[in-house]
UniProtKB/TrEMBL annotation:
Its EC number is 2.7.1.25. Pfam families: APS_kinase, ATP-sulfurylase, PUA_2. This is Adenylyl-sulfate kinase. Gene3D superfamilies: HUPs (3.40.50.620), P-loop containing nucleotide triphosphate hydrolases (3.40.50.300), Sulfate adenylyltransferase (3.10.400.10). One of its GO terms (molecular function) is adenylylsulfate kinase activity. The lineage of its organism: Bacteria, Pseudomonadati, Pseudomonadota, Alphaproteobacteria, Rhodobacterales.
Length: 571
């Protein structure tokens, strides 16, 4: 008999023959196209990573998990795994009906028998699961602004795994990992959860954890969805591969986990423990502020630094996996080694060095030195490829203001000045140019204007991602749409909002195109500033006044701002 942690666990996949038959029958079923987060959840449901779940939670299980961290039958499970859909889709589904679950290319991954359909109290879910209904928390923001309004629950039948074209040799199901551990004779395995690149402190920490537990080490990074702003998983996996040879090969392995993190701190730690137990691990390293999302809207941490460890310890026996405390490792200069902060007896007599994540990002963005005691040269080289200094990154300058405020004129002047400097391609996405080439079929309703701005944002994000400069000059009257565009672009580079603060009276006095006259006569409906609102930017990177100021001066103010942000540097 195998030890319990190495015996095979149940999966939700059917046999190859049944899957072939189900695929044909599924052609007649109503289909739901899964979101990236739902694909992550479905994969771990089907392969046993979310064992004992047999599908998306029923309403009774959901209520019990939200309120008590337990399924309705009393089993410990801290995270609601739900299939969120639009109200329209939910209304078209009957209880007991089978639906096909497809990826974004339309490939069928499984089917689900819908046993439950309900509208959740999302504010209550946020409060209980994340500790606060505060949209500064990425998962709470997702819950309210991205996830569907209705939830469906029911058992899932697995047909095939989602396809991953990247790092295929590094992706293992729970049963594949258990088989690997059996083959190598690994009885004790300590898992290390990470969503960040590994630096020297992490290496020291994982060495110590394995040594203290007398266990083998599984580096188990998350490559599904992490926190917005995190280093992309392609870069991270290259960083992990660069340092793997620093570990003893006979006692260390790495596998990738396609998990959509919720950044739920204490509950997330318990969830991660259950997932690692399913993958055959006996020990799990729980970090300081494990899976914390950072600051809330008042600027305070969402969770206390040791809340996750406390909750894990409380449920450790039931989880069935032993916690290894994450020590805060710092570099002691005199001894040229990493030591746990709370074990340094002579703190006052030695030099303690540490670099925070914020400081590391600053050094990368400004091209400053990153010392070898902090990180491995191979890791720094990978990070520098993805995060070159700011003066070599793409960025977007986004002008907003009333029609006739001077946005296009200043944008044109800025484009010429940036082209004169050279070094990066510059693209102007002016309102009129975009309307002609990208959005010729759109009208001027709120919905259409939003769509027009989102298109501009998409093109600007692609330009920024590829190292170019995008200059946008639409009216962009709505703050929520501008925020969404900012989020799209800031994944790839800087977003500089410039409010061209010309008064409506001055714009109407200029009225170069005669539009204000037509709007006053009621011949143009929904005209910004006359019959439709304009949300004045509260906190733009720059506000420029154009009355009695020449265009050259306005464009120069933008150049000075770009210099102060490090986006333009001296040669």
């Amino acid at each position: 008999m195998y030890p319990q942690n190495l015996a095979p666990i149940p999966e939700l996949y059917v046999s190859y023959e049944s899957a072939t038959k189900l695929k044909q029958e599924a052609a007649d079923l109503i289909s739901h196209d899964l979101t990236p987060r739902q694909i992550c959840d479905l994969e771990l449901l089907m392969n046993g990573g979310f064992n004992p779940l047999k599908g998306f939670l029923s309403e009774a299980d959901y209520i019990s998990v939200v309120d008590n961290m337990r399924l309705a039958d009393g089993t410990l499970w801290p995270m609601p795994i739900t299939l969120d859909v639009s109200e329209t889709f939910a209304e078209g589904i009957e209880i007991g009906q089978d639906i096909a679950l497809r990826d974004q290319e339309g490939v069928i991954l499984g089917t689900m028998t819908v046993t439950d359909r309900w509208t959740p109290d999302k504010a209550h879910e946020a409060e209980k699961v994340f500790g606060a209904n505060d949209q500064a928390h990425p998962a709470v923001n997702y819950l309210h602004n991205v996830a569907g309004k209705a939830y469906l629950g029911g058992p899932v039948t697995g047909i095939q795994q989602p396809v991953h074209y990247d790092f295929r040799g590094r992706r293992d199901t729970p049963n594949e990992l258990r088989a690997y551990f059996r083959k190598l004779g690994w009885r004790k395995v300590v898992a290390f959860q990470t969503r960040n690149p590994l630096h020297r402190a992490h290496q020291e920490l994982t060495f110590r954890a394995a040594k203290e537990s007398q266990a083998n080490l599984l580096i188990h990074p998350v490559v599904g969805m992490t926190k917005p702003g995190d280093v992309d998983h392609f870069t991270r996996v290259r960083c992990y591969e660069a340092v793997l040879d620093k570990y003893p090969q006979s006692t260390t392995t790495m596998s990738l986990l396609n998990l959509a993190m919720r950044m739920a701190g204490p509950r997330e730690a318990v969830w991660h423990g259950l997932i690692r137990k399913n993958h055959g691990c006996t020990h799990f390293i729980v970090g300081r502020d494990h899976a914390g999302p950072g600051k809330n809207s008042k600027g305070e941490d969402f969770y206390g630094p040791y809340d996750a460890q406390d909750l894990f310890r409380e449920h450790q026996e039931e989880i069935g996996i032993e916690m290894v405390d994450f020590k805060h490792m710092v570099f002691v200069q005199e001894r040229a080694q990493y030591e746990p902060m709370d074990e340094i007896a002579d703190k006052d007599d030695v030099t303690i060095l540490n670099i925070s994540g914020t400081e590391l990002r600053r050094r990368l963005s400004e091209g400053l030195d990153i010392p070898e005691w902090f990180s491995f040269p191979e890791v720094v080289a990978e990070l520098r490829k993805t995060r070159p200094p700011r003066s070599q990154q793409g960025f977007t300058v986004f002008f907003t203001g009333f029609s006739g405020s001077g946005k296009s004129t200043i944008a044109n002047a800025l484009m010429v000045k940036l082209m004169e400097m050279g070094g990066r391609p510059v693209t102007l996405l002016d309102g009129d140019i975009v309307r002609k080439n990208l959005s010729s079929e759109l009208g001027f309703s709120k919905e259409h204007r939003d769509l027009n701005i989102r298109r501009i944002g998409y093109v600007a994000s692609e330009i920024t991602k590829n190292g170019g400069i995008a200059i946008c000059a639409p009216i962009a009257p709505y703050a929520t749409t501008r925020r969404a565009v900012r989020e799209d672009i800031e994944q790839f580079g800087a977003f500089i909002e410039v409010h061209v603060a010309t008064s409506i009276e001055e714009c109407e006095r200029r009225d170069r195109k005669g539009l204000y006259k037509l709007a006053r006569e009621g011949k143009i409906k929904e005209f910004t500033g006359i019959s439709d609102p304009y949300d004045v930017p509260e906190d733009p990177e720059l506000r420029v006044e154009t009355e009695n100021v020449d265009v050259d001066n306005c464009a120069h103010q933008v150049i000075l701002k770009l210099e102060s942000l490090g986006l333009i540097a001296a040669d």
